[in-house]
Amino acid sequence: MSKNIDHIDRSILRALQQDASLSQRDLAESVGLSQNACWRRLKVLNERGLLMGSTARVDRKQLGLDLVVFVMLRTRHHSAEWLQHFRRHVLTIPEVVDFHRIGGDYDYQLKVVTEDMAGYDRVYQRLIDGIELDSVTSYFAMESIAEGRPLPL
């Protein structure tokens, strides 16, 4: 944990992770600060890059996005040029909601959210189009127990 933030900053970050729509007044009250003091701390947290905008969490199931797939990729290519091309390519696929370069048996892990198996097949076809990969292994989530949990502060 970063030693550059104190318990009040951690309280602010915890509160915002739970509900980023809190009014400044409610946020200040929840962390025991005046509105002005809270505003100053928020400004510093933004300037330091600890806060990266505000987003709304959307219920994917209510939108018909019922299929979650973890895609494990292995490649023989590790040049900076290939990696840059691959990253650009993957980031054009909106169904890829998480994208990590990892250690171990695989090189990359993607989290894909789509409506159904046909939707995933379209993502898969787009993923492999023009990209040389050694292997693609897909794991289908049967149940999402916890998604988008707050960071432990």
TrEMBL record:
- Check the record and name the InterPro entries matching this protein: ArsR-like_HTH, AsnC-type_HTH_dom, Dimeric_a/b-barrel, Tscrpt_reg_AsnC-like, Tscrpt_reg_AsnC/Lrp_C, Tscrpt_reg_HTH_AsnC-type_CS, WH-like_DNA-bd_sf, WH_DNA-bd_sf
Biological process, per Gene Ontology: regulation of DNA-templated transcription; response to amino acid
Question: What GO MF annotations does this protein's record show?
Answer: sequence-specific DNA binding
Q: Which PROSITE patterns does the entry link to?
A: HTH_ASNC_1, HTH_ASNC_2
Q: Per its UniProt record, what SUPFAM superfamilies does this chain match?
A: Dimeric alpha+beta barrel (SSF54909), Winged helix' DNA-binding domain (SSF46785)
GO terms under cellular component: cytosol
Please state what the protein is called. Answer: Lrp/AsnC family transcriptional regulator
Organism, per UniProt?
Answer: Parasedimentitalea maritima
- Which is a Pfam family this sequence falls into? AsnC_trans_reg
What SMART domains does this protein's entry cite?
HTH_ASNC
| Keywords of the record | DNA-binding, Transcription, Transcription regulation
* Residue stretches making up the HTH asnC-type domain: 5-66
